[in-house]
Amino acid sequence: MALHAASAATPQATPDTPAGLEKLSRRRIFFGHQSVGANLLEGMGRLMSRGGPAPQVREVREPTAAVAPGTLAHAMLGHNEQPESKLADFERYMDGGMAAQTDVALLKFCYIDFNVHTDARALFARYRATLDGLKARHPQVTFVHVTVPLTTVQSGAKAWLKELMGRSVWGVGENVTREAFNALMRQTYAGKEPLFDLATLESTRPDGTPETYTLNGRAYPAMVAAYSNDGGHLNEVGQARLATAFIDFLAALPPATRTSPAQAVP
Fold this sequence. Notes:
- By secondary structure, this protein is of the alpha/beta class.
- Helix content is 38%, strand content 14%.
- The longest helix has 18 residues, at 120-137.
- It is globular.
- The model is unreliable at 1-11, 159-167 and 259-266 (pLDDT under 50).
């Protein structure tokens, strides 16, 4: 197994970021997530602290919680290592009243939801069926798809020793499964529906080159080590990179075409 690593400088906000925050200050967004999503919101908070119009970031705990214009509402969905519970919770929020109050909605799985035994194809089929149902029931909402975050791959003496002993190296098999799911996301939605490719951002260095490792003659993406302090969660460098891209992505979505309040599906 070969691993290509690089250092990274702190990414800066793009020239479009203040304008993007201003656009988001007029939209209503619902974001379902767990810890990496919280990292992303931390990065957004730092960018918003620089001043200027920006959305209010607010945690909600019930589907019927009021969401005012200019709010990025977010909720911790389901349980880690149980991705189906996150899908069910996202559906519960949307059908329970959140869809009636938001223009944009998105669900993000976590890297810990995937291991070497995860059936990526079966989980994607469940994801697609859930989103198809939500889009049919709530056509006024723009649903955004998000690729699964990656982790770094263990390297150095410990990784070498594990390989020598025939033991699995942390991140190697798990990232293969995550990439299998992400490939299905890209094949299905890229260029057709909004897709925030978080995994590609995490595995791309500031100079634009990819972070990869080789397994059985094939290259797989991994998180750039400089974007994390523990190999999975985003540090300030990673937060700045992802939050900047997230703001710019959401701001570039077409404005909502809602003509009347949507009705929640009982």
